[in-house]
């Protein structure tokens, strides 16, 4: 072919248009933000409220319990103002990891139940739990202190606050009273000895008076017989 | 974590003792095993079986101690086991005992 024609043919060669890049490749895949389930929100709010209000939170493992026993146990606990709460682990764990109860995290595995109460009544709770062998106490958070099962048992054996306060006051005043007693010890002993001495003297004097009286009575008739 | 749905049969078991420390991180499988052992069907299969749970706080590893009616003892240390493994080990032994008992009855019958 003639060179010019060749050049012309080469320049005017048909260049097929490239297929457009499909949209899928350009636009980034936007994951639809899953809106939270309303029920999950409610449960989370309940968890926050429960942890805020209650002073005593006990976590137990819940093996299968027949419903009558469960009902009885709930009733007995209600009498002492202890409520039984169930929360799914997925909701409780994130809350715990953020709050100050981080060390309770390993407890929330498997099927658990929580006994919460605004008051602290450990003895009654332990007694009721003893009657239900299928519920095992794992740990508790009483007054912002995390306790194990043994710790809870020890806590229940402690005397009440009034008795403990009385003991503390007694111990503190013991020093002062001991010092007082030591200082007064010598004078008290002296007084006691003198008292004893006086009693002895008065007892002895009474005897000598009696003897003197008898002697005079004897002298009297003798004198009178002498005078006569 | 596939947990078999087959119920645990406690027919040949005299007592089960489960010991763990709940504040450790490796007790999950032991607790799941305990839940299965305490399930309704398991309880119904043998009312005389005693299941005791020992909750301690001394950092010891989780242990499951099963006493069988014929004197055998199965001790499983659950620190590195999955619940499925523990249950399958227990079930296989129960099945073996079932077979032994069947053979005995057949011999007695024959």
Concise synopsis of the structure shown:
By secondary structure, chain A is an alpha+beta fold. Chain A has helices spanning 3-11, 23-26, 38-53, 67-79, 89-98, 122-131, 149-157, 161-227; strands at residues 56-62, 83-85, 112-117, 135-142, 145-148.
What descriptors fit this protein?
heterodimer, A: about 230 residues, alpha+beta, Alpha-Beta Plaits, five-stranded antiparallel sheet, 8 helices, about 10% strand, elongated, B: alpha+beta, Glutaredoxin, four-stranded mixed sheet, Large ribosomal subunit protein uL10m (chain A), Ribosomal_uL10-like_sf (chain A), Ribosomal_uL10_bac_type (chain A)
Description:
Chain A: This is Large ribosomal subunit protein uL10m. The complex is a heterodimer of chains A (228) and B (110). Chain A is an alpha+beta fold and 228 residues long. Chain A contains eight helices and five strands, in the order H-H-H-E-H-E-H-E-H-E-E-H-H. In chain A, strands 2-3-1-4-5 form a five-stranded antiparallel sheet, with helices on both faces. The longest helix of chain A has 67 residues. The relative contact order of chain A is 0.09. The model of chain A has no long low-confidence stretch (mean pLDDT 83). Chain B has a single domain, classed as 3-Layer(aba) Sandwich (Glutaredoxin), CATH 3.40.30.10. Chain B has a four-stranded mixed sheet with strand order 2-1-3-4, with helices on one face. In chain B, a hairpin with a 4-residue loop joins strand 3 and strand 4. At the A-B interface, strand 4 and helix 7 of A face helix 1 and strand 2 of B.
Largest sheet data of chain A = 5 strands, antiparallel
Reading the helices and strands of chain A in chain order gives HHHEHEHEHEEHH
Strand order of the largest sheet of chain A: 2-3-1-4-5
Helix content of chain B: 25-40%
Strand content of chain B: 15-25%
Helix content of chain A: 55-70%
According to CATH, what is the topology of chain B?
Glutaredoxin
Report the span from N to C terminus of chain B.
45 Å
What is the chain-wise order of helices and strands of chain B? EHHEEEH
Q: Which percent range describes the beta-strand content of chain A?
A: 5-15%
> What is the arithmetic mean of pLDDT of chain B?
81
CATH architecture descriptor name of the domain at 45-158 in chain A: 2-Layer Sandwich
The poorly predicted ranges of chain A are: none
Structural class of chain B: alpha+beta
CATH architecture call of chain B: 3-Layer(aba) Sandwich
Number of domains of chain B: 1
Name of the CATH homologous superfamily of the domain at 45-158 in chain A: Ribosomal protein L10, N-terminal RNA-binding domain
């Amino acid at each position: 072919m003639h060179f010019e024609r060749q050049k012309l043919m080469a320049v005017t060669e048909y260049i097929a248009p490239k297929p457009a890049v499909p949209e899928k490749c350009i636009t980034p895949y936007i994951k639809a933000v899953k809106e939270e389930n309303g029920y999950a929100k409610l449960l989370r709010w309940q968890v926050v409220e429960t942890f805020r209000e209650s002073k005593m939170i006990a976590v137990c493992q819940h093996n299968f319990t027949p419903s009558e026993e469960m009902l009885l146990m709930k009733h007995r606990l209600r009498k002492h103002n202890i409520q039984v709460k169930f929360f799914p682990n997925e909701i409780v764990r994130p809350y715990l990891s953020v709050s100050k109860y981080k060390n309770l995290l390993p407890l929330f595995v498997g099927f658990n139940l929580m006994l919460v109460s605004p008051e602290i009544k450990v003895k009654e709770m332990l007694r009721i739990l003893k009657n239900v062998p299928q519920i095992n106490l794992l740990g508790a958070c009483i007054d912002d202190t995390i306790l194990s099962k043994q710790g809870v048992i020890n806590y229940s054996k402690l005397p009440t606050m009034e008795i403990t306060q009385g003991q503390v006051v007694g111990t503190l005043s013991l020093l002062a009273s001991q010092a007082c007693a030591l200082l007064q010890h010598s004078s008290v002993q002296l007084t006691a000895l003198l008292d004893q001495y006086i009693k002895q003297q008065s007892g002895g004097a009474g005897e000598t008076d009696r003897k003197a009286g008898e002697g005079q009575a004897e002298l009297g008739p003798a004198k009178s017989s002498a005078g006569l | 974590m596939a947990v078999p749905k087959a119920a645990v049969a406690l027919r040949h078991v005299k007592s089960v003792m489960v010991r763990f420390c709940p504040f450790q991180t490796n007790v999950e499988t032991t607790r799941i095993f305990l839940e299965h052992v305490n399930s309704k069907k398991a309880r119904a299969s043998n009312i005389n079986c005693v299941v005791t749970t020992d909750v301690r706080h001394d950092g010891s590893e989780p242990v499951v101690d099963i006493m069988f009616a014929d004197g055998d003892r199965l001790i499983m240390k659950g620190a590195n086991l999955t619940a499925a493994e523990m249950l399958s080990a227990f079930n296989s032994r129960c099945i073996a005992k079932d077979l032994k008992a069947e053979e005995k009855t057949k011999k007695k019958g024959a």
